[in-house]
Design goal:
mainly alpha, Growth Hormone, Chain: A, 2 domains, 19 helices
């Protein structure tokens, strides 16, 4: 099978285990940041930092603005759905375009689009012209932009670092999302309190402008992604066919799907656990969220530390098993300190094995298919609302602990099946 040949080509690690073990502590730390040696990746990383900060701040500002305008939780959900629908619907097309065009330019122009949205919202709020339909239309347009932006960002990474530094680049890139999850909402909340929603949107615009400037400074050698004369529909079909025919891709994208739909149920159910199971109220809920965020940051740092170690297949499988078992433990816990520890472990294990899977896909993908395959991988994450519906339905009839434990059983069970039935995946080195 084609997937097996791909795996055999990439099975030799960049560093032997013996060499890795001989490194001193300071050398190991330096190696954990090896991707930052490359100028283009540094520009990309800091641009990502600014871009994701803008995204997280905008999410808080949008939610607060919709609530102020409507005082309706339903409208909050519908606004989020308005963003999600085009993102999901157009991601396959976005991946196909990323494999035809200059990915760097797509990323830059997508950020320009986001910056314009932030600027329009700034003006609408400051002039007191804003209405719900403005927000929903702009959320829809942002979702369309994101569908083209995400595959290009993900596919661009191997063009900025050598192959041996790709796992490290993926792991270091993951720290951006976790840091911004901790910082972005807090900054947005403080700005809304101090200066209002309009100026907060303007700060989002400024952060996007910084990202654009940094990404314009990226200079890539070689040609952009190859284009061809075939139709986009055929390109999208080819991407799906490639995944179906190669074990390495459909297995790891399948594991991502299971994590998104079943594993992340605990995030949806966390308020229910805080109020009804642990009886710790909103303050306890905040501590649980912080524990999960701290664990996720620890997970990407662990992935960065282990990025030059071989055995990526087993790392991903073990991480998924630990995540599934810990999810069941969290579901069974009625003692708050244990739940805090479990929430930290969940964030750490989940982020570690998802980062490892991302690195595996990036390491083994042919460049001409990278946009489409990584776009589909990203699409698996966008299906998280489906998991929320499933978990909510189970919780309604059987309780939140059963809903979360079911998610842990599905994720851990999937990983166990992969470990037992697919030795080529288990033995995958890079």
């Amino acid at each position: 099978m084609a997937g097996n040949s791909l795996m055999s080509k990439s099975s030799a690690p960049p560093l032997s285990q013996s060499t890795t073990g001989a490194l001193s502590g300071s050398q190991r730390v330096a190696q954990s940041l090896s991707a930052l040696k490359h100028r283009n990746y540094r520009l990309y990383w800091f641009g990502q930092l600014a871009s994701v900060l803008a995204q997280n701040m905008e999410a808080v500002a949008q939610s607060w603005l919709v609530l102020e305008l409507t005082n309706s939780p339903l409208m909050l959900g519908l606004t989020g759905l308005t963003f999600t629908i085009p993102t999901v619907a157009l991601t396959l097309l976005g991946g196909a375009v990323a494999d035809r065009a200059d990915r760097r330019r797509i990323m830059i122009w997508a950020q320009v689009g986001s910056a314009l949205v932030f600027l329009i919202l700034t003006a609408l709020v400051m002039l007191k012209w804003v209405a719900l339909w403005h927000i929903m239309v702009l959320a829809f347009l942002t979702g369309c932009v994101r569908a083209f932006d995400r595959p290009s960002r993900m596919a661009l990474l191997p063009q900025m670092v050598p192959k041996e530094d790709i796992p490290n680049a993926v792991a270091i890139g993951g720290t951006i999302w976790q840091l911004n999850k901790l910082v972005g909402p807090a900054v947005a909340g403080m700005l809304i309190y101090l200066v209002g929603i309009g100026p907060t949107y303007f700060v989002c615009f400024l952060a996007s402008a910084v990202a654009i400037g940094l990404w314009i400074a990226i200079h890539l050698a070689g040609k952009p992604a190859a284009s061809n004369s075939r139709g986009l529909l055929k390109d999208m079909t080819e991407g799906l066919s490639f995944i179906r025919q190669n074990e390495i891709y459909w297995v790891f994208i399948g594991m991502t799907f299971f994590n998104s739909v079943f594993g992340m149920s605990y995030v949806i159910m966390m308020p229910v656990f805080a109020r009804n199971v642990l009886h710790v109220g909103s303050q306890g809920f905040g501590f649980l969220q912080s524990a999960g965020g701290g664990g996720a940051l620890a997970g990407v740092l662990l992935a960065a530390y282990l990025s030059h170690f071989p055995g990526k297949g087993l790392q991903a499988i073990n991480g998924a098993v630990v995540f599934g078992v810990t999810l069941i433990l969290f579901a069974m816990s009625s003692w708050f300190p244990l739940s805090l520890v479990a929430a930290f472990a969940l964030g750490m294990a989940g982020q570690f094995y998802m980062t490892t899977i991302h690195a595996i896909l990036q390491m083994n993908l042919p460049n001409e298919l990278r946009g489409r395959v990584m776009g589909i991988h990203g699409l698996a994450w966008e299906l998280m609302p489906i998991g929320g519906l499933i978990a909510g339905a189970i919780a309604e009839f059987a309780g939140a602990p059963i809903a979360v434990a079911f998610g842990g059983l599905m994720v851990g069970g999937m990983a166990f099946v992969v470990a037992v039935a697919m030795p080529t995946i288990r033995r995958l080195q890079q």
